[in-house]
Amino acid sequence: MRRLSIIVVLFLAVTTVFASVDTGSALKIEPEMEHRYASNIATRFLTNWHYKRTRLDDELSSEIFDSYLELLDPNKIYFLAGDVEMFERYRNGLDDALRHSDLLPAYEIFNVYVERVQQRVNYARNRAKQPFDFTVDEFYQYDREDENWAGSTAELDELWRKRVKNDYLRLVLTDKEDEAIVETLTERYDNLERRINELNTEDVFQFFMNAFAQSIEPHTAYLSARTSENFEISMKLSLEGIGALLGRENEYTLISRVVPGGPADQDGRLKAGDRITGVGQGNDGKMVDVIGWRVDDVVDLIRGPKDTVVRLEVLPEDASVSGPTSTIDIVRNEVKLEEQAAQHKIIEVPVEGSEDEVIKIGIIDLPVFYLDFKGRAENKPDYRSSTRDVRRLIGELEEQGVTGIVVDLRNNGGGSLLEATTLTGLFIDKGPVVQVRNSSGRISLEEDVEPGMAWTGPLAVLVNRYSASASEIFAAAIQDYGRGVVIGEPTFGKGTVQSLLDLDDYAPSDKPGMGQLKITMAQFFRVNGGSTQTKGVEPDIRFPSFGDPQEYGERSMDNALPWSSIDPARYDTSGDLGQVVAVADSRYQGRIIGDREFGWLQSDIDVYNERSNETRISLLESVGREKMKEDEAKKAERKALQEAGKPLLEEGVVADINPEMGEYPDMAEDSEDSEEADDDEEADDGPDLLLRESARIVADMIELESDLELLQRQFTQLPEDKPEDHKIN
Fold it and tell me: What pLDDT does residue 723 have?
């Protein structure tokens, strides 16, 4: 199911909407004058400055209308079909309303939504106190995105009866007593009502403007004054918390990403895609159920003073909604910038047929492309940058005798474009790295102008579905130049550039607090002319991955810019790795057939893929308990297998090296999955299987290139060694 979340930092909240009103005497929410000013300015920017040519017409109005209803009620569990039919009169008129800064249609729709939410809260609260029969064979359809709107209140009541029954059953499966279950659910629905009562006109305006912005392109967004302030905090990473990026998926708060170097990243248990179902304070504070909460309310619970504990009840990404949750306790702290810098270690790969000989592969872990812009501008000799750090790490790896390098960009969401260019320059002689086309069609080149390479040996770039933006620029350039092999999953596919505009700069001086507009202004293109947009970077050697690549990343987003191409730049390739890559891929495919951990990975993928198409869940207690029993048995079996024999650890890991760090501003958008394993972690959360296999692939390439060089040398030397054999009489 498509995720309708506006990604937000743990220190940022772009709302999911709940608003408040008493059904007896409805307090209608209305727009304020400053919202009319802000909408006027934002509309002019969105229709004139956006990279995508945009016409404010009936077609766009219809898209805004659908987007607004979908963002308000994505699962079609509040509005009635009659409501939507009544709203249809606005379908082709929102363009005219925006032209005249008329926000009343958006607020009228929202006020009806408020009433419907309140009605559902009242129903759910009352129904939770009545008994359920969990021996009745029926299903709750939790994904209703493609369903029709309910035609009557009775139809909605039946839908919500099953929803509340499912909520109840999930707690029954944790062996809670009935009284405690009713208390938990009542509190859940009370919290929903409380959040309804806290809604204000700014929330409604922000939500409608985001429906407008995302009808144009998914990375374009309106940030209210409050959200803008939180965004500033997030970019400075100065707020004390756990360091995670939050979004929304249906009624769940979603972990979109984990900020590198933050407490969650160091703990290692919280993963992108996990869903938060509860938040508790301290080691024994009450666990507050947060299903259905606004993201900013969840953020407020997770924030807290440094060195205090927050407990998260988490439903893992690969678990169904009926799956068991786990509790993760994390000590809040400031994100330590030095722990976001490039780090390295060595993996020793045994040479086949030799007891003692190994091939040393250097691993460079780069969580983000960072740069101290101020230090660079001031010509400070010791300013920090990812390129400078990686250059130094390459030198240290060479001193330790490595013969191949893997640059690990998994979960690296980007950062400085300049750094993506200069880092590429460490591995190519010189030349263009990326082409940038702006909204007027002008194309500019970002080039490496410094001759020479810091590393000339075998190279691989490890990526996954969360490698985006600057990561894709680097990986694409390495691939296009034939300089190294790209390994992993197809990348995210974000090939666009955004600028942040402060609307206060364009508003009357007596109207502060207009908020900000994040707007797409340009697009990246590879040196071969193709874009990274939507397609991302396709790996040369592909690892198994969960789900269909078309269902994640840019390619899954509504209104994403399409893939396109321009003329290639002029550049000289380093060579053709096709033959070596083909043989290395064949060796890898043969190696994983008998690998136990790859077998576990493929088994998990098969289960995930099977469940990913499900839209409903059984309300039989017996079925729920059987699934839990199967999952627990699988975990126990794997743990027993690892404890019975020596686990498949990374061979010969020499060290994880944390260089001495200075200060630089954070450019982080993503993070590397932590490899640290807790004693209670699942067996497959231990060794980094994919990193280890990447090192083996590079080792294969080293052996293959050595064999090819030997053959070529023998062939070219043959006439000189035996000239008499080639005489012509």
Answer: 42
Q: CA 494, CA 183: separation in Å to the nearest integer?
A: 44
- The per-residue pLDDT for range 334-384, each reduced to its tens digit, is 655 556 789 999 999 998 877 789 999 999 999 989 888 777 888 888 888
Catalytic residues: 469, 480, 494
Amino acid letter, 422: T
| Cβ atoms of residues 648 and 347 within 8 Å | no
Task: Determine contact, residues 81/148, Cβ cutoff 8 Å.
Answer: yes
SS3 label, residue 419: helix
Please give the Cα distance from 463 to 472 (Å, whole number). Answer: 9
d(CA 641, CA 655): 27
Is the CB of residue 452 less than 8 Å from the CB of residue 429? yes
* Average pLDDT of the residues in 308-328: 83
Cα separation values, 662 from 165, 431, 659, Å: 55, 31, 10
Phi, psi of 506 (to 5 degrees): -120, 10
Q: Compute the half-sphere exposure of residue 168: CA atoms within 13 Å on the CB side of its CA.
A: 26
SS3 642: helix
Domains of the chain with CATH codes: 8-233 (no CATH), 237-331 (2.30.42.10), 338-495+531-595+648-707 (3.90.226.10)
Task: Specify the pLDDT at position 461.
Answer: 98
CA atoms within 13 A on the CB side of 324: 15
Q: What are phi and psi of 119, to 5 degrees?
A: -60, -40
DSSP for 136-186, please give it: S--EEE---TTSPPBSSHHHHHHHHHHHHHHHHHHHHTTT--HHHHHHHHH
Among 213, 77, 214, residue whose Cα is nearest residue 149: 77
Enumerate the β-bridge partners of residue 312: 279, 328
Whole-structure pTM over 0.90, yes or no?
Answer: no
Q: Which two tokens stand for residue 143?
A: 């994904």
Tens of pLDDT along 376-409? 888 888 888 899 999 999 999 999 999 999 999 9
- The one-character DSSP state at 241 is B
| Alpha helix positions (H), 518-570 | none
Query: How many Å apart are CA 231 and CA 465, to the nearest integer?
Result: 24
Measured from the Cβ of residue 85, the count of other Cβ atoms closer than 10 Å reads 10
- Amino acid in the structure at residue 639: K
Q: Name the least confident of 7-21, 111-125, 508-522.
A: 7-21
The Cα–Cα gap between 287 and 277 comes to 9
Scan for tokens 């060290």, then name that residue.
655
CA distances, 64 to each of 25, 83, 520 (Å): 30, 17, 18
What integer is the mean pLDDT of 524-537?
Answer: 96
Q: At what angle do helices 33-48 and 201-214 cross, to 10 degrees?
A: 10
